[in-house]
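TA notes, week 10

Several of you asked for a full example with nothing omitted. So below is the full record: structure tokens for the whole chain, then the designed sequence directly under it. When grading your own attempts, check the secondary structure regions first.
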């Protein structure tokens, strides 16, 4: 029964009876697999608190999409997908819905489905900068690197390229991604030039900084190749979007194949610190220390994980702090040891 029919019926009954009938009609039967947003709308409808002009189905569309966004932001990707799936038949032509669902598919590693959603948006709204950018990242994940590069390059002339995106000047963000893709496609000289241009445009571009000062020199010394760079690129993003298992698998492969590439160990430290796996952090960083004894910051990172495991104020932490102070004194060029000590209100002597 439509919303109009419900209100028409209500007007023919006495006020008390009308309210009871309306609540009964609006309260659709619950199902065990309904997402929470359905239950919320059912309760709102039963209490007669729906906004004017909104029926229970309209409430579901709005609330499930908003709930999906909140769950996605919280890293609860499967729950977010359940909320979106509940209203997908009613929003299949909505670009905002397709973008939301595509991002969830991406975070779940369902890259083919993510690409299908981003493709639909680009077909409906060709000027959508975010859909185009997410499409490019998804093509990278599907290892369609030339297509991804073409998509990023195309976005340079889009109106959205003049705004900020992902916290950077968008032209820098695009140039940096094109540069990384040229590295992956085998043109190291061109990639380096594009990454430098990205950094010149916006000095905050950490992707460009990392690749110019850490990754490209390692490639030149044959410590890592294009396959390893691809693993690093995707693992770094997986750490950022909380795809822990995928990131862990990629990091283990990187350590096994490229033991003298320091960035892998720093990425591992970030992943394992953030997830509370301090012993894993220590294990991998110890491998790094043995493989690259000249990389002082690997020991600093390992000692940080040991501190976190022991508790920075515990008795067990005292010898670790002393080791950090000695490391800082022996290597005054290491900013990381000083940063760790200062974070604990301990200053190197």
């Amino acid at each position: 029964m439509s919303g109009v029919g419900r209100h028409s019926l209500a007007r023919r009954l006495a006020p008390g009876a009308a309210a009871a009938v309306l609540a009964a009609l609006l309260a659709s039967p619950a199902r065990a697999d309904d997402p929470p947003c359905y239950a919320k709308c059912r309760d709102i409808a039963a209490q007669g608190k729906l906004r004017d002009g909104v029926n229970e189905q309209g409430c579901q569309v709005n609330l499930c999409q908003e709930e999906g966004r909140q769950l996605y932001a919280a890293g609860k990707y499967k729950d977010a997908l359940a909320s979106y799936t509940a209203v997908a038949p009613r929003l299949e032509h909505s670009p905002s819905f397709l973008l939301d669902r595509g991002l969830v598919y991406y975070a779940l590693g369902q890259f083919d489905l993510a690409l299908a959603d981003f493709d639909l948006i680009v077909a409906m709204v060709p000027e959508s900068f975010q859909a185009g950018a997410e499409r490019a990242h998804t093509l990278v994940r599907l290892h369609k690197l030339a297509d991804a590069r073409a998509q990023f390059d195309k976005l340079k002339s889009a109106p959205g390229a003049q705004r900020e995106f992902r916290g950077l000047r968008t032209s820098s963000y695009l140039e940096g991604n094109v540069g990384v893709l040229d590295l992956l496609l085998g043109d190291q000289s061109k990639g380096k030039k594009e990454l430098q241009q990205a950094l010149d445009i916006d000095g905050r571009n950490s992707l460009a900084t990392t690749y110019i000062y850490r990754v490209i020199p390692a490639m030149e010394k044959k410590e890592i190749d294009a396959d390893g760079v691809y693993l690093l690129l995707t693992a770094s993003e997986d750490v950022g979007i909380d795809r822990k298992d995928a990131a862990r698998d990629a990091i283990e492969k990187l350590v096994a194949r490229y033991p003298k590439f320091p960035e892998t160990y720093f990425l591992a430290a970030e992943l394992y610190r953030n997830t509370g796996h301090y012993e894993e952090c220590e294990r991998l960083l110890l491998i790094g220390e043995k493989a690259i004894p000249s990389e002082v910051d690997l020991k600093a990172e390992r000692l940080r994980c040991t501190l976190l495991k022991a508790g920075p104020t515990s008795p067990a932490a005292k010898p670790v702090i002393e080791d950090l102070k000695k490391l800082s004194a022996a290597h005054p060029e290491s900013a990381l040891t000083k940063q760790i000590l200062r974070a604990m209100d301990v200053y190197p002597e």
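The longest strand covers residues 164-165. Use that as a sanity check on your answer.
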